[in-house]
Write the structure tokens for this entry.
Amino acid sequence: NAGVMQNPRHLVRRRGQEARLRCSPMKGHSHVYWYRQLPEEGLKFMVYLQKENIIDESGMPKERFSAEFPKEGPSILRIQQVVRGDSAAYFCASFDRVATNEKLFFGSGTQLSVL
Amino acid sequence: DQQVKQNSPSLSVQEGRISILNCDYTNSMFDYFLWYKKYPAEGPTFLISISSIKDKNEDGRFTVFLNKSAKHLSLHIVPSQPGDSAVYFCAARNSNSGYALNFGKGTSLLVTP
């Protein structure tokens, strides 16, 4: 897990507020995945990004969720108007080449709690 | 729809014995399988993988077996150690369709001294 930094580790929001989750990939990595883990569930794919591009967002809810990975700075997962069902652990993972995505390096996650 | 299934939520094994974690999948197009290990409050870490062209891959105490006809794979840990206590996730991907890994719900392994 060393190298992929996610912040904050814990985020508490009230219903209707916005949540911003940040992910700084390992140095030199230009590919980022976001996964979500609901209680008692496995990790669910949300989105795959390269620098400045969204490659696959098939796992993202159609509304309220967005992600970006700008040329400079961390990847951001943004959830607008949060609801209780958004409460989950959100994990970011980075890697450097598509062919070796078994070498995904995960961050420690952001635990989002919606009150 | 859960394409990767880990039907045992938990497993308890005595130190020194073999731990066998099982995983079933439904998508016959999956061609690469991985096991990840996760400690509390940490992200998953890659453990071992296997391509669909193989039926076995070994790395130290860890061996993964793949039975394609049964759409089943298993992770063997021999000998089990208390430090192996963690949640183990099975994951699979179809290299020709997208980039996502499909994860099972995990099996919590407890290795007792």
